[in-house]
Amino acid sequence: MRSRWLRVNGYQLHWIEAGHGPAVLLLHGFAGSCADWAPTVAWLAEHGYRALAVDALGFGRSEKPANAPYGLVLQSDLYAGLLAALGIERATFVAHSMGGKYALATAIRHPDRVTRLALVATDGFVEPSPLTIIGGWPVIGETILWLSAHPAVVRAFLSAAFHNPAPHVNAELIERGREAISGAANRRALTALSRRYAATDLTLTGLRVRLHEVRAPTLLIWGTQDRVFSLHNAETARREIPGAQLVVIPQCGHFPHIEAVRPFRGLLSGFLAQYG
Q1: What is the pLDDT of residues 25-42, one digit of tens each?
Q2: What is the overall mean pLDDT for the chain?
Q3: Can you give the pLDDT at residue 164?
Q4: Given this structure, which CATH class describes domain 2-127+198-274?
């Protein structure tokens, strides 16, 4: 597995990559990074796929510009631009949480680039919380992030996102979560992202009413105990995305690819094989 960087549409993107074969692009959730997908990248490579897990602009080791026009338009253009720059005509998008709405935006705005969608506890079907909106306020937003970066707070947030946190919320995962919201560059980028919430929301951008345009076969994977996006949101996504199939994993929270590795990989393997 190797790290790669490339300037796309004027922004430096980082991703990890392994394998050869049909392309699979993996997108992480909020306050995450490509490291969340590293075991899946290795597994996909072993099974005949070229897997690329990308750090979204403003996250991980990608550039963190404070004044970028963060939003679904920018992010979807970056993913389409990255594929074009790498000579990849089309890819399956596997996306978790926040990454799910970026994948959906790409499927709507750049349909020729998206072969399939595997959306894991996807964002895009909930109302914005007051904390999300307040997070975009100058000074207040950065203060909230500074306080949230305390290891005890990170542990509490992560523990709430798992059905059974004990085996998974370890020092490594806590440190990754802490790093994602620590440091001036990270905090400025996350505050800028929150400040432009309307541009990152499927409904407010007008993209949600265009979900009927999605033609890529879509698999929705959800945990029964997801406390971040409930099964109500899963059912809404299933209704609004044409032909979407919803599979619910029992005794699992918001991170099926971490908490329920075997069933998650079984579902993804079958989905990839089903559509060639």
Answers
A1: 999 998 899 999 999 999
A2: 90
A3: 92
A4: alpha beta
Close Cβ partners of 123 (under 8 Å, ≥ 6 residues apart): 29, 30, 97, 98, 99, 100, 101, 229
**Exposed / middle / buried, residue 48 (Cβ in 10 Å: 0-12, 13-18, 19+):** exposed
Question: What are the start-end ranges of the H helices in the chain?
Answer: 38-46, 72-85, 98-109, 130-134, 140-148, 151-161, 171-180, 184-195, 197-200, 231-240, 256-259, 261-274
Can you tell me the distance from the alpha carbon of 40 to that of 98, in angstroms, rounded to the nearest whole number? 18
Close Cβ partners of 198 (under 8 Å, ≥ 6 residues apart): 204, 205
Task: Name the residue among 83, 82, 85, 114 with its Cα closest to residue 100.
Answer: 114
Q: Tell me the two tokens of residue 169.
A: 């919320």
3-state secondary structure of 114: strand
DSSP string over 60-77: TTS---TTS--SHHHHHH
pTM, rounded to two decimals: 0.92
Residue recorded with tokens 């929301």: 201
